[in-house]
Design a protein that fits this description.
By secondary structure, this protein is mainly α. The chain is built from ten helices and no strands. Helix 3 crosses helix 6 and helix 9 runs antiparallel to helix 10. The longest helix is centred in the C-terminal third of the chain and has 21 residues.
């Protein structure tokens, strides 16, 4: 089974809908705006409410919390995005040898833009002391952004890439099942390191 960027796009959108890839190209030109939507959802709603994402980003946010809150370190910016980029580099290097290189390059683009905007957009609450609303609005922003990336036939790296490489060898598994398993671990860590309400709201 040969995974390819074209196959992923066909599965995500449907080649019959865009036989010449024109809509796909347009979607990739919109990547900076998509990344801005994601970063805004994170830094204006999710992070100020002390909530956490799933996957590698969630792990990076937990590491950032341990470094800043528990060890008292100060970085001037939210370093979760930078940690996410660092974690993605070995994954992208491995994917470069195992997956379609065009797909990996586009994933690198999305991860790079996402990291830059997560670092530049200041963390400040737009909805002070309203955890539920921040959770819902942040979920809409990030969910819409992730959906747009998938519609463009790409990923935001992290365990999405790891899952694709695993599924390539183990056809009985699925990307969704692997992602769900990882998120269970992440939110269990949230519950253990932080508290139960934080883990529940982060879901």
């Amino acid at each position: 089974w040969k995974f390819s960027y074209k196959k992923y796009y066909e599965l995500s959108v449907g080649a019959a809908d865009d036989p010449h890839g024109a809509r796909l190209t347009l979607r990739w030109f919109n990547m900076p705006y998509v990344a801005k939507l994601l970063a805004a959802g994170m830094n204006l709603f999710i992070v100020p409410a002390h909530l956490y994402s799933g996957g590698i980003m969630g792990i990076c946010q937990l590491i950032r919390t341990l470094l800043t809150r528990e060890l008292g370190l100060s970085f001037g910016v939210d370093i979760a995005g930078i940690l996410y980029y660092i974690c993605n580099l070995p994954i992208l290097a491995l994917a470069w040898r195992r997956l379609d290189r065009g797909f990996v390059l586009k994933t690198l683009l999305s991860v790079s833009i996402m990291t830059l905007l997560l670092t530049l957009i200041p963390v400040r609450p737009l909805l002070s002391s309203d955890t539920i609303t921040s959770c819902l609005v942040g979920g809409v922003f990030t969910g819409a952004g992730i959906g747009m990336v998938l519609r463009a036939g790409g990923t935001l790296g992290g365990f999405d890439l790891v899952s694709l490489m695993i599924v390539r060898k183990h056809h009985d598994l699925s990307v969704g099942r692997i992602g769900l398993s990882v998120n269970v671990v992440v939110y269990a860590l949230c519950m253990a390191i932080l508290n139960v309400p934080t883990a529940i709201y982060s879901l």
